[in-house]
User: What shape does this take?
Amino acid sequence: MVQINFAKREINCKLVYYGPGLSGKTTNLEVVHKKAPTSKKGDLTSIATEGDRTLFFDYMPLELGKVGGMNTKFQLYTVPGQVYYNATRKLVLQGADGVVFVADSQPDKMDENLESFANLEENLREQGLDPKTIPMVLQWNKRDLPTVMSPEELDAKLNKYNSPTFEAVAVTGEGVFPTLKRLAQMVLEKLNQEYGLDSKKSSKSSSKAAAKPAAKAEPKPEPVAEKKPEPKPEPKPEPVAEKKAEPKKAEPKKAEPKKAETKAAETKAAAAPKKEWEGVVLGSRAEPEKSGAGKTIGILLFVVVLVLGGLVGAGYKGKAPGKIQKFYNDNLKARLGGGTSGKTGAKTNAKTGDEAPKTASDSGKSEKSK
Amino acid sequence: MRPSDTDQKLRNQRLIFYEDDVEQINRGLENYQQLSKSRCNMLIDVEGHAVTQVGSTDGINLETIAALVAGSVAATKEVAKILGEKEFTSLTHEGKHESIQLSVVGNRTILATIYDQEETTTGMVRFYTKELVEKLQGIFDDIQNRKDPVRGVFDDTGISGLDDVLDDMFGDV
Assistant: This one.
């Protein structure tokens, strides 16, 4: 599970190489360790038997560098492939962010491949991970051997989730980096979809990757990978709406153009992610609600004032203080050409509602009785 | 379970640390380190990623130790289950000079205390650990209960520089 550490400005992801025994998982890791720049890699640690069969896991840290201002690190693990070690495989798979399934291309190994893939699905589900949505890449290894199945056959039998596939000869290093590179892209794209500032940037990056010519080792061009149903996270407010709402919340006093404000707010957000979290998300959700509610309340108040005005006017019809009545009689009555104030009031009330005249006459009666 | 539910569940479980969280954790760790006279204290999540550390880490490969510690605790948890326990909350590996004590904090993190047998004792370390674990538990409860809407992990460039970073690492394959 990706750990996001804003204090270190660091993202940690866990990638796991899975597959049947002797399919080449540890070899993949050894090649990555051998070829990765020294400054970017940590030690390769293996908990293995004396015969070099993985007992628990192989592990190496790999520091990718800065992506979107965050130092991105991958922890690469392999699982023990032998059927016997399923308990330890589950432990290694715990919290995985991406999986490389390394399959042996030889026809007589297909049953083991199938068994291992089914085991992967089962263990993923047991860990609360969904095999359909977890970033996954399949590697057809040992392509240099004389008897191998065609990529199409392997694809038909093993590629249940339309994952990207790569041919490889791990012992020579062929296909090892393209496999890892694609998985790294998928993991970070998924993370960007979930937590990025602007999900459009993620699709931009995807299209860039898709536009690249497929590597020689790739039997399936990358656009095919893009067909893979990407996991749709929770419905999110439109990023554009967020940007509009954000400056209002973050810098309410400024009367700058919106674009400039947005950029400033985003820069500020990069410097202080927590503030950005509060500002962007809460701001974007609160602002539109506030304006919508304000309108509704305004309209309701207007209607209430109109109705009350009518009622009060009717209520005061016969009770207007003498001075006001006199002022009306002297100055306004002739100009308006109306009758008595009482009649005017009654007409008005008749237009506004049925109850009002009744109340007015009641009121008049009570005045008379007094 | 629908994929969206699974994804949501994962997001809810995901640990996200802000500077304030880590400062708060570090203050607790520093205080504990002085009291227990331990050499180094690390906080590690159950997936094996180091969260933070205080004290002298000279000669210690933190990343590797984090991965191994997480594996060790996970394996021991399975042993506990077989024995009918939910988990073992504390593990101690004693060496001739250096020792390490692992304490489970909540359900997502592990405290690893490395100490020198000549500077302190296992009993001292255990004694002060209990108080710290409770304190950390409170901090982690706050972190986990924090509502999800975190946006902007990456800056305004997003992951547009990813291809270049990958090319630097792996070559333009």
Observations:
- Confidence is low (pLDDT under 50) at residues 199-292, 338-370 of chain A.
- The radius of gyration of chain A is 36 Å.
- Chain A is about 50% helix and 15% strand.
- Chain A has three domains: 3-227, 239-300, 316-369.
